[in-house]
Write a structure and sequence with these properties.
The protein is an alpha/beta fold and 303 residues long. 42% of the residues lie in helices and 15% in strands. The protein contains 11 helices and 10 strands. The longest helix has 23 residues. The protein is elongated, with a radius of gyration of 20 Å. The protein starts with 10 loop residues before the first strand and ends in a 6-residue tail after the last strand.
């Protein structure tokens, strides 16, 4: 089924015809099936008209017609591919005449999750993991998943635990909730990682390790993790939980664990960093370098 109306709380995926976007589409389709949600496939092309013509007069009608035709082709192929994931999946399509970032941020206001590929042909993904991915993850009104996979692999992993970074921040609480839901939906174990030293230089790191490791500060951090997880195992008794407290940089630990995980979940920014930052260094490092899909949970407000 294909339509252009918006259903409540769909899974939204941005497509541009690239192989990475196709993998993101498949991932999003499976996520929609797991949640009994609709899948909304979006292709924004508003930026392209500006690239074709930058003069004072508007672009010719045939340029818009060509863009429309290309978008319709991309969306039709994506809808057909989504239908191969599961019978009965409700698939809706949209091609707003907006730049990709704006289109997806607008879509996020009515979405349960926005899904992006890790690279593309310059549309919704592009560049490294993409300035688009960073911008959408920074401004979306819902969680954003960037579908990454291991070097040499053609598809994202479907085996391994769900890993969540726990830092005690308010958005970190949302990340914990999302991680338990993901683990339950996937029938996967959950690894809750609290890495509690965020320094950049090895000398400072080594000095801190000698000072803190095994002392009362480590006990405080173990207590923090226990407090943050309190109540969740009872809500999700089917989820096996491994608790990890380690004196290390959070992004280092989470990147390492992404090598064997099927999903890493983090808040958009944690306790550190500068006030007003929309996306922290840990979440940015993960969406650029993780070896599995990364789910970035937003604070909940529209920015």
């Amino acid at each position: 089924m294909s339509a252009t109306d918006i259903a409540a709380d769909p899974i939204v995926v941005g497509v541009d015809g690239s192989a990475a976007a196709t993998e993101a589409l498949r991932w999003a389709a499976r996520a929609a099936v797991q949640r009994n949600a609709d899948l909304r496939i979006v292709h924004g092309y508003g930026y392209a008209a500006d690239e074709f013509y930058r003069g004072e007069l508007p672009p010719a009608a045939d340029i818009y017609a060509a863009l429309d035709a290309d978008s319709e082709r991309i969306l039709a192929a994506a809808a057909e591919e989504a239908g191969t994931v599961a019978d009965g999946l409700v698939v809706r399509t949209a091609m707003p005449p907006l730049p990709p970032v704006r289109a997806l941020v607008e879509e996020s206001r009515a979405a349960r999750m926005v899904v992006l590929g890790s690279s593309g042909r310059g549309g919704f993904t592009g560049m490294l993991t993409g300035s688009t991915a960073v911008a959408v993850t920074s401004h979306a009104a819902c969680p954003v998943t960037v579908v990454r996979y291991r070097e040499g692999e053609a598809r994202p992993p479907v085996e391994g635990p769900v890993v969540v970074g726990v830092d005690g921040s308010p958005v970190g609480e949302r990340a914990i909730a999302a991680a338990f839901e993901e683990a339950s939906l996937r029938e996967a174990p959950l690894v809750a990682v609290h890495a509690w030293l965020d320094v950049e230089y090895d000398s400072a790191f080594n000095q801190a390790r000698v000072y803190f490791e095994g002392g009362p500060h480590e006990q405080d951090e173990q207590r923090l993790l226990a407090e943050r997880l309190a109540g969740w195992p009872e809500k999700y008794p089917d989820v096996q939980v491994e608790r990890v407290v380690v004196l290390d940089r959070p992004r280092h630990q989470l990147l390492e664990r992404s090598r064997t995980a099927q999903l890493v979940v983090v808040g958009s920014r944690g306790r550190g960093g500068f006030r007003g930052m929309l996306l922290g260094s840990t979440s940015q490092a993960l969406i650029h370098h993780a070896e599995c899909p990364v789910l970035v949970v937003r604070p909940g407000e529209v920015t």
